[in-house]
């Protein structure tokens, strides 16, 4: 295709800031979150690890968005992704016609699916008097693709359906996968994003790993975007919010040291800039979210500075507010960038440079995986 642009025509987001992009932007800008329950709802009365700050989606009530029917067997991971997808579809000016459902698909980034559902199912199989009496209705929730499949089934989407597990860069991997699928004609519209849940199992796993550093904070959330290939035509779903013009991911072995990971991020960012046609000085805002733990934020900043050749755009530090959101982090960063453009201050009058129109998302994982995406404001 001559046009390699993918439009973002709608999005929905759930985070510790609440529901929607405006709440997310307000929290990132102020650095403050609304008061929460300390994760009691997400932990389901199970004990929390000592010293770990939990930042769940406040007052999360899936039935308010999905209705009451059929939710009892769904994991928190699945309902988070379903509600974010519902919000994304509701943000469109008009619903797509029924004939588009065959070419509409779902691509989600995740870690393991629901760790809680997985652990509880297999524990019950050991503790039950007869292991085969474990409820079969709970088994689908263990699967990595359960969230994406539930979104598709709810809306009768029969197009491409995929789930990608890539740790911290899961959401950026999903965006890259979806972008390639749209540009090669495998779909006309894709709901794409990332999801991560808080549970007692994930909280204790992070606590025992010691990977969250001295001021540990663990978050959750989901963000889903409606993506459509531009192809020179107006978007079928209405006005474009932004354009996903490039997305790249790569990897550097940790055995080669921190400098190798920073260099990999620099190369990844340079590749994304080159593919987008943007110069380093064009980037006006960066949505950053280094992995938790000592040194990772500095490592990400080092790689970013190298790629941007000394230019210093505005930085949205999403993780400082939302905590470690792991496989949802890239999607929440993208949502924060869109919210910054839509709900933040307008560009200064008389500006002639292009910096107000370009944004960069960078991500670094504990395993040496890195990712970068370039967006252009519509």
Q: Profile the largest sheet.
A: 11 strands, mixed
Mean pLDDT: 90
CATH H-level name of the largest domain... which superfamily? Thiolase/Chalcone synthase
Q: What is the straight-line distance between the termini?
A: 20 Å
How many helical elements? 12
CATH architecture of the largest domain: 3-Layer(aba) Sandwich
Proportion of residues in β-strands: 15-25%
The CATH class of the largest domain is identified as Alpha Beta
Classification by helices and strands: alpha/beta
Judging from the principal axes of the Cα atoms, what is the shape? globular
CATH topology of the largest domain: Peroxisomal Thiolase, Chain A, domain 1
The tally of structural domains comes to 2
Low-confidence stretches: none
Number of strands: 13
Q: Sketch the topology as an H/E string, one letter per element.
A: EEHHEHHEHHEHEHEEEHEHEHHEE
Helix content: 25-40%
Write down the Rg.
Answer: 20 Å
Describe the structure.
There is one protein chain. This protein has 378 residues and is α/β, with parallel strands linked by helices. The chain folds into two domains: 6-229, Peroxisomal Thiolase, Chain A, domain 1 (3-Layer(aba) Sandwich), CATH 3.40.47.10; 242-377, Peroxisomal Thiolase, Chain A, domain 1. 35% of the residues lie in helices and 22% in strands. The protein is built from twelve helices and 13 strands. The protein has helices at residues 21-30, 40-43, 63-66, 76-90, 115-127, 146-155, 170-183, 200-209, 258-276, 296-307, 318-322, 329-343; strands spanning 6-15, 18-19, 53-55, 104-110, 161-165, 189-196, 217-219, 221-229, 242-251, 283-288, 314-317, 358-364, 369-377. Strands 1, 2, 4, 5, 6, 8, 9, 10, 11, 12 and 13 form an eleven-stranded mixed sheet that branches. It has a two-stranded parallel ribbon with strand order 3-7. Helix 1 packs across helix 12, helix 4 (76-90) crosses helix 6 and helix 9 (258-276) packs across helix 10 (296-307). The longest helix is centred in the C-terminal third of the chain and has 19 residues, at 258-276. The relative contact order is 0.19.
């Amino acid at each position: 295709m001559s046009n390699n642009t993918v439009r973002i025509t709608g999005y929905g987001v759930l985070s510790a800031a609440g529901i929607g992009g405006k709440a997310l932007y307000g929290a990132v800008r102020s650095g403050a979150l609304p008061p929460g329950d300390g994760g009691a709802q997400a932990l389901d009365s199970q004990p929390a690890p000592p010293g770990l700050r939990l930042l769940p989606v406040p007052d999360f009530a899936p039935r308010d968005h999905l209705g009451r029917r059929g939710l009892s067997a769904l994991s928190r991971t699945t309902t988070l992704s379903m509600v974010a997808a519902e919000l994304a579809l509701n943000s469109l000016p008009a619903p797509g016609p029924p004939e588009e459902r065959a070419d509409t698909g779902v691509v989600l980034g995740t870690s393991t699916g629901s760790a809680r559902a997985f652990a509880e199912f297999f524990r019950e199989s050991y503790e039950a008097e007869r292991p085969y009496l474990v409820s079969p209705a709970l088994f689908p929730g263990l699967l990595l693709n359960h969230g994406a499949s539930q979104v598709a089934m709810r809306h009768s989407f029969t197009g491409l359906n995929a789930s990608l597990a890539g740790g911290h860069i899961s959401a950026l991997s999903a965006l890259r996968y979806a972008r390639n699928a749209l540009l090669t004609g495998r779909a006309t519209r894709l709901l794409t994003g990332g999801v991560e849940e808080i549970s007692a199992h994930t909280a204790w796993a992070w606590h025992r790993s010691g990977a969250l550093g001295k001021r540990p904070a663990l978050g959750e959330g989901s963000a889903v975007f409606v993506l459509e290939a531009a192809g020179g035509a107006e978007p079928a779903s209405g006005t474009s919010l932004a354009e996903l013009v490039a997305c790249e991911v790569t990897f550097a072995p940790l055995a080669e040291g921190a400098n190798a990971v920073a260099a990999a991020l620099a190369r990844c960012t340079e590749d994304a800039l080159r593919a987008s046609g943007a110069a380093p000085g064009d980037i006006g805002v960066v949505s950053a979210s280094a992995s938790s733990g000592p040194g990772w934020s500095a490592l990400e900043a080092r790689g970013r500075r190298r790629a941007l050749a000394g230019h210093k755009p505005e930085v949205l530090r999403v993780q400082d507010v939302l905590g470690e959101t792991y496989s949802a982090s890239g999607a929440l960063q993208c949502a924060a960038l869109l919210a910054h453009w839509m709900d933040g201050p307008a560009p200064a009058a008389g500006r002639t440079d292009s910096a107000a129109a370009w944004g960069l998302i960078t991500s670094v994982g504990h395993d040496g995986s890195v990712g970068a995406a370039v967006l252009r404001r519509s």
